[in-house]
Amino acid sequence: MEFRKGSSLSISDSSKKEMASDTGLELLIEQTISVITNDGRNIVGVLKGFDQATNLILDESHERVYSTKAGVEQLVLGLYIIRGDNISVVGELDEELDSNLNLSSLRAHPLKPVGH
Amino acid sequence: MLFFSYFKELVGKEVTVELKNDLAITGTLHSVDQYLNIKLENTRVVDEAKYPHMLSVKNCFIRGSVVRYVQLPPDGVDVEILHDATRREARGT
């Protein structure tokens, strides 16, 4: 099993490749993504790599902390690996929409953890 | 494999996926894989006032393991075909 990287996608089986490009995260490599984790955190960063289990490598990442008392606080995390088990949603961040957001005035309850 | 095949039939339709953290996301079903991970395009969160966390996300990948419900379009299920497929799967043929 190997980690996928934008520049060196090395899957020999072409059908596998086609399948992966349809459903995988290849298209998001080197893009800014927003990850929601099972414990309700929101981490934004540049996707550097991923694997079958949705383990992710994020660069230049930061956490966006939502609260009802103050605007969104951004905590710098840097280079991060997030284990797939702990991931709920991987969203492609639209940079234009994101730059139009006024995070300091955005108030909301933090997302709930994924309960079972 | 039955549900994998079933969801593949729904590609292109609009669905609402409710997650186990109560977040509900509506979008066009782009693809599904063997783990029932779901990719949606043109997404919007059902209660944006309460959940502004994904305001700048229009395409997303949802991990199959956190999906609670998938709300289907009314014409999304042909019960007869699904019955037959279910019986066939149960017989293991």
From TrEMBL, chain A:
GO terms for cellular component: spliceosomal complex; U4/U6 x U5 tri-snRNP complex; U6 snRNP. SUPFAM superfamilies: Sm-like ribonucleoproteins (SSF50182). GO terms for biological process: mRNA splicing, via spliceosome. Keywords: Acetylation, mRNA processing, mRNA splicing, Nucleus, Ribonucleoprotein, RNA-binding, Spliceosome. GO terms for molecular function: RNA binding. CDD domains: LSm8. Its main location: nucleus. Residues 20-96 form the Sm domain. InterPro entries: Lsm8, LSM_dom_sf, PTHR15588, Sm, Sm_dom_euk/arc. Belongs to the snRNP Sm proteins family. Component of the precatalytic spliceosome (spliceosome B complex). Component of the U4/U6-U5 tri-snRNP complex, a building block of the precatalytic spliceosome (spliceosome B complex). The U4/U6-U5 tri-snRNP complex is composed of the U4, U6 and U5 snRNAs and at least PRPF3, PRPF4, PRPF6, PRPF8, PRPF31, SNRNP200, TXNL4A, SNRNP40, SNRPB, SNRPD1, SNRPD2, SNRPD3, SNRPE, SNRPF, SNRPG, DDX23, CD2BP2, PPIH, SNU13, EFTUD2, SART1 and USP39, plus LSM2, LSM3, LSM4, LSM5, LSM6, LSM7 and LSM8. Plays a role in pre-mRNA splicing as component of the U4/U6-U5 tri-snRNP complex that is involved in spliceosome assembly, and as component of the precatalytic spliceosome (spliceosome B complex). The heptameric LSM2-8 complex binds specifically to the 3'-terminal U-tract of U6 snRNA. Plays role in pre-mRNA splicing as component of the U4/U6-U5 tri-snRNP complex that is involved in spliceosome assembly, and as component of the precatalytic spliceosome (spliceosome B complex). The heptameric LSM2-8 complex binds specifically to the 3'-terminal U-tract of U6 snRNA. This is U6 snRNA-associated Sm-like protein LSm8. The gene is LSM8.
From TrEMBL, chain B:
The keyword Signal does not apply. Residues 2-76 form the Sm domain. Belongs to the snRNP Sm proteins family. PANTHER family: SNRNP CORE PROTEIN FAMILY MEMBER, U6 SNRNA-ASSOCIATED SM-LIKE PROTEIN LSM2. This is Sm-like protein LSM2. GO terms for biological process: mRNA splicing, via spliceosome. The lineage of its organism: Eukaryota, Viridiplantae, Streptophyta, Embryophyta, Marchantiophyta. Keywords: mRNA processing, mRNA splicing, Nucleus, Ribonucleoprotein, RNA-binding, Spliceosome. GO terms for cellular component: spliceosomal complex. Component of LSM protein complexes, which are involved in RNA processing. One of its GO terms (molecular function) is RNA binding. It is found in: Nucleus. InterPro entries: LSM_dom_sf, Sm, Sm_dom_euk/arc, U6_snRNA_Lsm2. Pfam families: LSM. Its main location: nucleus.
